[in-house]
Amino acid sequence: MKISFRLAASALAALLLAACATTTGRPFDPNVVNGFHVGTTTEAEVQAKLGSPDTVSNQDGATTWVYSFTSTQSNAMSYVPLASMIGGKSTMASQILELTFDASGRLSHVHNQATKQ
Length: 117
Description:
- This protein is an alpha+beta fold.
- It has helices at about 1-15, 30-35, 45-50, 85; strands at about 20-25, 55-60, 60-75, 90-100, 105-115.
- Strands 1, 2, 3, 4 and 5 form a 5-stranded antiparallel sheet that branches.
- The longest helix has 16 residues, at about 1-15.
- The radius of gyration is 22 Å and the shape is rod-shaped.
- It starts with a helix and ends with a strand.
């Protein structure tokens, strides 16, 4: 009987300490982005380094590419009422990169944002 209780307690502890993770998009290296230069970097150069953008929009002759990445990790205790107050832990990291190109396909604006909580 004691072995069954210990096994059940160990299994419960392992479940509560297990981590859950959700990821969307692909992370990108900020050093690569720092190598992009307004007025000289082209759409082809960006695509060669970062791949296809997640979204593309066109407005007034300009094209904006958006790359995004989000990763969230939570331990199982985060989902248990009351237990989440003492042992629940979640972390989130995100990157958003908006690149705007002029009508000739040259980079005209860069907005790069990264957060970690």
